[in-house]
């Protein structure tokens, strides 16, 4: 594969360029690497900062420990130092780096000392390198300092060399991703000098280790490690450069490592060895664990160990993978071929001579079958030998007792049965009966029961049925042989039967899981709305995981709880912060992760095809999810994400449709307004030009009619324009009705007169109660409303008379206008007050403007009254519009 | 006087109200129809010489009326339309309407359109004759174009374009009609051809190409050649 790359791909590797582009958007990380404390990293960092500051660069000190050294402290003069965050921790006040202050300040470069530092418990991230990662993501350049012994992959090596175990560790990937690594070097002898002069600060607790640590040999070894790491980086950079610029070179080693691990303690060592090997070879490496396909042999603890190991491997820069198969050797080789691996790394236990005789170890088998592959075998340290056994035997004890009971039961039953039969007939093959017992025990109780039953059967058979009976001695030699054959057959058959049982059990568990997942996805598919999908997912997750589950979705820019199960599950501030983090960064946060681990919930992003659609939180109460639950969780979250994404798309489609509908409405509106304005205009223009050019040829009646049409159309247009202006005033909120005393009788009278003038043929009947109180309002506006109502009645009322009534109702005054036209269907009654709504001819065109009633409502409400419509008004016909104004008892005072 | 009979199709009574006396006074006999169905019936039974058709009708689209009329009649049709209904107007013209007039319009303008449409109808089957407009002479038999006695050299496409416009002098010819008849049916949308060729044509035939008097632009619709003298 590597050869192919070299031959075909002369163009710059697009992935390499992309990675570079991605780096460009981020801040740059500069690591000042030293072999040991006291070599002068902080000093180097600060003096460089001073130089850049002098050049006008925005350099800020986020956190620097001067450890009271005056020469270092002097360098801080003239540099901006960010305030620290004060944290109470176990009764002591700690001063910590304030990440949010740094993000807020947004300098070009920030200096944060001591990369390997661990933050106190309630911090956002447990480790400082995670704080730094966040700064870099925000586009801020960071300078930091690191001693080589804190590097994860070197931890065991450093422990071996110096005898001191380093607790604060930094994943290799951090150093690997650093944009610049500056080696701060000091000869070990000089460092020891400085130490003796008291120039090296060391914490109180470490003084004991000082003598052990600061030995020439140790320091030389550490210095070598630091130098070599830096050299490796320089080499990597060279390779990067060659790749980016498509320079053909000897850069592709083409090596690829596969590292096999299990849950045993040796595996951690295997990973570390492999990490060093891979970085030495400059090769990618893949860490795999293999699971038996036919058995769920892995206990939660073992799975947990593998999980931890995978995390370690990932931090060291490996890919990780779980594979499932029965023949481990075959699976590993298959994977190696698929991945074009060149080397395999595997650990081996010390085996007893007996074990070596009976079976071949996995590494041996691998070595013999792996042609063309290098196999590295990592051996065990003496000390780490037998640590794993006890943890395994504990859960087994109970199972073993169960198996024993089954075995004993079956064998006892069979013996009794055999005895019973023996009384009546002489069975020559009573051993077959025992075989049945063994099979029975194996099916019910598993492999252990099968084995026990086989041994017990052999003993019982011998004791009860082989002559001399009731002794364990055997008279006939052929019976001895037969007994051994029986034992062998029983063990093999029992083993096979129990294996079948286990396989069936595993298959059943997986089928159940699959079935429930299938049911879930089917239900999910039938939900249209995102909300249903959310509830379904939450209840499904709760049922499957037996934990509190919350689902959050973004709403109006912020994340909110959409569903929780049980419904009373609540999130505190830390939980919400973690959830938002997950949403913003699309990475898990909260419990068990690198971000805000003291949240009770673990939050995972729901990633749909079009980005993040939500965040799911699972409460963790101590124990971790087992592998099956983890699988189910992933599957459910994936499906939910897709369902939510689909729901969101559906919502957007609906919104889009509504927008289109709105646009169509506005278009119709515009065309209707333009029609209403243009028709009178066309009539006027036509009539005027007709009169001017052809007037003398027309009859006087025709001339008169044309003049009259001009008058009428002008009136129509001015009414329409007035309506539009009124509407604009109502909408702009500039309508300020006067608060005069209004006599309804007067207003009605003048409106009716106006109507009669414009529709001479129509009969308008009025009925006004004598005891009407005055009302407070604007008589012009009330008159306009009445006229609009009468105008509608003229248009839609057919040729029937129109009735106007005004009467008293308690303290209120009611005014109604009733026509006897076709009426309005009940579903449209409310809509008639909407702007530009009109009931008209089939083509949608109508004599009105669609403004009259909405203006009426605007006016009436502005004067504190109410208006509504009733239809049918009487005898299944007609429409009545009723206005109600609050009356006033002022009549007497005025008159 | 041989009165021409005009069918006015409009559902607005106000429009009918001023058209009838004006057209009568101009010497036409007026027949009225308020719907598409009525219009089709009136054309069949009353044999009008010309139809004035409003595109917005209550029962059917004005375009449908044109399409069904053109199925069996070549009666001249003048459309009444609004300025903001450009596409509707063009579609109507492409369906076979003869001309259009935008609301609001003066009676003089309308009667001019009516006269042109009626005259063109009489000329439709006539043998091509020499045409003259604003000093420009087009002889379709000799395929000769001259301006004040001097021959104007036109490319074949320019000539085809000019002749097509001249045959419909006084009436609007849509872009599509020009493009499909001169360049072929595949070029119905290639408006840029037309812009270029009309520009060249004007350079050759107009006295002042910046203020064309022979080939006038009907914005968004097409071109109209001035009436022959």
From TrEMBL, chain A:
Read off the Gene3D superfamilies from this record. 1.10.287.130, 3.30.450.40, Backbone structure of the membrane domain of e. Coli histidine kinase receptor kdpd, Histidine kinase-like ATPase, C-terminal domain, HUPs, P-loop containing nucleotide triphosphate hydrolases
Localization annotation: Membrane
An example of a Pfam family matching this protein is HATPase_c
The protein's UniProt keywords, in alphabetical order, are: ATP-binding, Kinase, Membrane, Nucleotide-binding, Phosphoprotein, Transferase, Transmembrane, Transmembrane helix, Two-component regulatory system
Q: Which GO terms describe its molecular function?
A: ATP binding; phosphorelay sensor kinase activity
Q: Which residues form the Histidine kinase domain?
A: 672-889
Q: Its topology with respect to the membrane?
A: Multi-pass membrane protein
Q: What is its EC number?
A: 2.7.13.3
Q: Name one GO cellular component term.
A: plasma membrane
Report which reactions are catalysed by this protein.
Answer: ATP + protein L-histidine = ADP + protein N-phospho-L-histidine
Name where it mostly resides: membrane
Tell me where the transmembrane regions lie: 404-425, 432-460, 480-500
What protein name does the entry list?
Answer: histidine kinase
Automatic annotation (TrEMBL), chain B:
Q: Where is the Response regulatory domain?
A: 5-118
GO biological process per UniProt: positive regulation of DNA-templated transcription
Q: Tell me which domain of life the UniProt entry assigns to the organism this sequence originates from.
A: Bacteria
Q: Which residues form a coiled coil?
A: none
Q: What subcellular locations does the record give?
A: Cytoplasm
The record's listing under CDD domains reads: REC_OmpR_KdpE-like, trans_reg_C
Return the PANTHER family for the record: KDP OPERON TRANSCRIPTIONAL REGULATORY PROTEIN KDPE, REGULATOR OF RPOS
Name used for this protein in its record:
Response regulator
Q: Which organism is it from?
A: Oryzicola mucosus
């Amino acid at each position: 594969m590597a050869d192919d790359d070299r031959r075909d791909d002369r163009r710059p590797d697009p992935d390499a360029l992309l990675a570079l582009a991605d780096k460009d958007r981020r801040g740059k990380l500069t690591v000042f690497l030293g072999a040991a404390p006291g070599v002068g990293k902080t000093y180097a960092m600060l003096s460089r900062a001073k130089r850049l500051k002098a050049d006008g660069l925005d350099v800020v000190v986020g956190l620097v420990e001067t450890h009271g050294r005056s020469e270092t402290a002097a360098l801080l003069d003239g540099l901006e130092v960010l305030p620290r965050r004060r944290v109470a921790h176990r009764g002591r006040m700690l001063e910590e780096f304030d990440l949010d202050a740094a993000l807020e300040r947004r300098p070009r470069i920030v200096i944060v000392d001591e990369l390997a530092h661990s933050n106190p418990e309630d911090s956002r991230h447990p480790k400082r390198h995670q704080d730094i990662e966040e700064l870099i993501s925000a586009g801020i350049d960071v300078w930091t300092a690191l001693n080589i012994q804190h590097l994860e992959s070197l931890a065991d090596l450093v422990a071996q060399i110096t005898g001191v175990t380093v607790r604060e560790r930094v994943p290799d990937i951090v150093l690997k991703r650093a944009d610049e690594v500056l080696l701060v070097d000091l000869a070990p002898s000089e460092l020891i000098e400085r130490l003796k002069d008291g120039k090296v600060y060391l914490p109180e607790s470490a003084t004991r280790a000082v003598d052990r640590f600061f030995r020439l040999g140790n320091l030389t070894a550490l210095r070598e490690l630091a130098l070599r790491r830096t050299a490796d980086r320089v080499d990597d950079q060279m390779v990067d450069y060659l790749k980016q610029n498509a320079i053909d070179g000897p850069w592709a080693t083409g090596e690829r490592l596969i590292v096999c691990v299990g849950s045993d303690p040796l595996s951690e060592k295997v990973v570390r060895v492999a990490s060093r090997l891979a970085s030495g070879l400059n090769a990618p490496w893949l860490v795999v664990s293999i699971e038996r396909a036919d058995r769920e042999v892995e206990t939660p603890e073992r799975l947990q160990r593998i999980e931890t190991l995978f995390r370690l491997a990932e931090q060291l820069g490996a890919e990780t993978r779980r594979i499932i198969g029965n023949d481990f050797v075959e699976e590993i080789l298959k994977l190696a071929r698929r991945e074009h691996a060149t080397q395999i790394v595997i650990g081996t236990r010390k085996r007893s001579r007996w074990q070596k005789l009976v079976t071949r170890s996995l590494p041996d088998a691998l070595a013999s079958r792996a042609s063309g592959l290098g196999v590295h075998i990592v051996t065990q340290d003496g000390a780490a030998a037998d640590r794993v056994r006890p943890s395994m035997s504990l859960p087994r004890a109970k199972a073993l007792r169960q198996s024993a009971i089954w075995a004993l039961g079956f064998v006892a039953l069979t013996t009794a049965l055999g005895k019973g039969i023996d009384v009546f007939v002489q069975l020559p093959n009573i051993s077959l009966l025992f075989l049945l017992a063994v099979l029975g025990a194996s099916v019910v109780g598993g492999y252990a029961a099968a084995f026990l039953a086989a041994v017990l059967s052999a003993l019982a058979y011998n004791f009860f049925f082989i002559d001399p009976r009731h002794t364990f001695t055997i008279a006939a030699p052929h019976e001895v042989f037969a007994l051994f054959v029986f034992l062998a057959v029983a063990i093999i058959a029992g083993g096979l039967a129990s294996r079948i049982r286990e396989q069936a059990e595993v298959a059943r568990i997986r089928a159940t899981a699959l079935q429930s997942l299938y049911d879930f996805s089917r239900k999910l598919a039938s939900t249209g709305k995102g909300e249903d999908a959310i509830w379904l997912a939450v209840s499904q997750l709760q049922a499957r995981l037996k934990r509190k589950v919350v689902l959050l979705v973004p709403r109006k820019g912020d994340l909110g709880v959409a569903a929780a199960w049980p419904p009373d599950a609540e999130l505190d501030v830390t939980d919400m912060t973690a959830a938002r983090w997950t949403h913003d960064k699309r990475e898990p946060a909260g419990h068990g992760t690198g971000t805000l681990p003291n949240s009770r919930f673990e939050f995972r992003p729901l990633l749909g095809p079009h980005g993040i659609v939500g965040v799911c939180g699972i409460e963790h109460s101590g124990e971790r999810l087992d592998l099956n639950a983890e699988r189910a969780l992933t599957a459910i979250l994936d499906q939910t994400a897709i369902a939510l994404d689909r729901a969101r798309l559906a919502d957007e489609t609906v919104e889009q449709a509504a927008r289109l509908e709105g646009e169509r409405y506005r278009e119709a509106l515009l065309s209707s307004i333009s029609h209403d304005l243009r028709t009178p205009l066309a009539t006027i223009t036509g009539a005027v030009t007709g009169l001017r050019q052809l007037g003398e040829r027309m009859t006087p009646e025709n001339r008169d009619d044309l003049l009259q049409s001009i008058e009428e159309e002008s009136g129509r247009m001015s009414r329409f324009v007035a309506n539009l202006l009124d509407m604009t005033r109502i909408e702009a909120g500039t309508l300020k009705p006067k608060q005069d005393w209004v006599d309804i009788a007067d207003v009605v009278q003048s409106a009716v007169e106006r109507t009669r003038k414009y529709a001479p043929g129509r009969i308008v009947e009025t009925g006004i109660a004598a005891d009407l109180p005055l009302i407070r309002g604007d008589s012009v506006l009330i008159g306009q409303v009445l006229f609009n109502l009468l105008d509608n009645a003229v248009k839609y009322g057919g040729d029937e008379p129109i009735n106007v009534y005004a009467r008293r109702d308690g303290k209120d005054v009611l005014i109604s206008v009733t026509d006897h036209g076709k009426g309005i269907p009940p579903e449209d009654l409310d809509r008639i007050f909407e702007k530009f709504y009109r009931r008209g001819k089939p083509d949608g065109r109508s004599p009105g403007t669609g403004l009259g009633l909405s203006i009426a409502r605007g006016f009436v409400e502005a004067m504190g009254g109410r208006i509504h419509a009733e239809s049918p008004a009487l005898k299944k016909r007609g429409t009545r519009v009723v206005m109600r104004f609050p009356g006033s008892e002022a009549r007497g005072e005025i008159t | 006087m041989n009165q021409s009979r005009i069918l006015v199709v409009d559902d607005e009574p106000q429009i009918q109200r001023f058209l009838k006396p004006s057209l009568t006074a101009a010497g036409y006999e007026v027949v009225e129809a308020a719907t598409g169905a009525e219009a089709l019936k009136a054309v069949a039974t009353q044999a009008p010489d010309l139809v004035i058709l409003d595109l917005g009708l209550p029962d059917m689209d004005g375009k449908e009326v044109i399409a069904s009329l053109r199925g069996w009649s070549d009666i001249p049709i003048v459309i009444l339309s609004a300025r903001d209904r450009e596409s509707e107007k063009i579609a109507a013209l492409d369906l076979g309407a003869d001309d259009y007039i935008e609301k609001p319009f003066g009676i003089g303008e309308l009667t001019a359109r009516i006269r042109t449409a009626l005259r063109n109808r009489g000329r439709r089957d006539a043998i091509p004759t020499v045409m003259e407009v604003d000093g420009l002479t087009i002889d379709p038999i000799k395929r000769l174009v001259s301006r004040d006695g001097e021959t104007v050299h036109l490319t074949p496409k320019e000539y085809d374009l000019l002749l097509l416009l001249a045959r419909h002098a006084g009436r609007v010819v849509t872009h599509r009609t020009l493009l499909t008849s001169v360049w072929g049916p595949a070029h119905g949308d290639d408006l840029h051809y037309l812009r270029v060729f009309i520009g060249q044509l004007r350079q050759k035939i107009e006295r002042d190409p910046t203020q064309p008097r022979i080939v006038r632009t009907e914005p968004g619709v097409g071109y109209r050649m001035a009436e022959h003298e």
